[in-house]
Design a protein that fits this description.
The chain is 74% helix and 0% strand. By secondary structure, it is mostly helical.
């Protein structure tokens, strides 16, 4: 079947009684609700916090179990705090520039440095009780992220 200009490139194949619509914009018309997007963001945030708490607790436990590492942290505590603040500033800059890889690396680095500074809490209080609080909090974030992955309201 020819079109108005005599070309045989019609979008409709009426000869075979089959309607072919090549102008379908279904992929473009799909909309994602705000609630779905918000749920995915919160779920991923909880998952990231779960991992960050585990990294922080693991780092602090490694430091507090070795007196030489603890002394090195105590001697350089001011420098570590400055590096921690600089890590936050750099991470914010990478997030602003939408550099996901470097933002993730900086967040992991921040979790490790935070574990170094938090090791004094582990040293000041009972190691088991502080570890259990970190573990319970990490598990709470993990459970909430799993709940967010599967629950639909």
């Amino acid at each position: 079947m020819n079109d108005y200009y005599g070309n045989n490139n019609s979008f409709n194949d009426w000869d075979n009684d089959v309607y072919v619509d090549n102008n379908s914009f279904d992929d473009y018309n799909r909309s994602v609700s705000f609630e779905d997007t918000e749920a995915k963001i919160v779920t991923r945030s909880f998952l990231v916090m779960f991992a960050a708490l585990l990294i922080t607790a693991f780092t602090a436990t490694i430091v507090v179990t070795d007196i030489y590492k603890m002394k090195a942290i105590a001697d350089n505590f001011g420098i570590i705090v400055i590096v921690e603040v600089l890590t936050v500033i750099l991470s914010s800059a990478f997030i602003k520039n939408r550099n996901v890889i470097l933002s993730a690396v900086m967040f992991i680095l921040y979790s490790v440095i935070n574990g170094l500074t938090m090791s004094f809490i582990f040293f000041a209080y009972d190691l088991g009780s502080v570890q259990s609080i970190f573990l319970v909090t990490a598990i709470l974030f993990g459970v909430m992220s799993i709940f967010g992955m599967f629950a639909r309201f």
